[in-house]
Amino acid sequence: MTEKIKTLQIIHFALCAGLIVAYFVIGEISVEKLKTIPTIDSSSIVFAIIPFLAIIMANFLFKSQLKQVDRNLKLEDKLPVYQTASIIRWAILEGVAFIILILKPDFLIFGILVIIYLIFLRPTEEKITNDFSE
Fold this sequence. Notes:
Layout: H1 2-25, H2 31-35, H3 45-67, H4 75-103, H5 108-120, H6 125-133
C-alpha cells in the first residue's frame, strides 16, 4: 500500500517540480514582476477566470471518478482509481498553469496560485482515506 502511495507522490512531485522550473525559466519570475498587479480588461478576463474554472472542473472530475468505485472494496483495491483520478486532476491544473505561462505571462500570479493549490494536493494515506469517505 505504501509503495503505491509513494509512486503517486513521486508523480505529484515531478509534476510540481516541472511546473516550478518552467515558471522560473520561461516566466523569469522576479519580485518586481510579482508586485505588479495585471490590468484586467475585456480581452484578458478569460485568463483571469480560467484558473478558477479549472480548479472547479478538476475537482468535479476527481470526485465523479471516485464515486464510481465500489464502497465495499478495500482501500488498496480502490487505489488505481484514485491514481487515475488524481492524475486527471493534476493534468488539468498543470495545463492551465502552462496556458497562463505561455499565452498570458502578465498573469503569472494566477499561475502561481494554481501551482500552490497543486502542491497542497499532495497525496497521503490520510487524504486518500478522507477522499473515499466523502
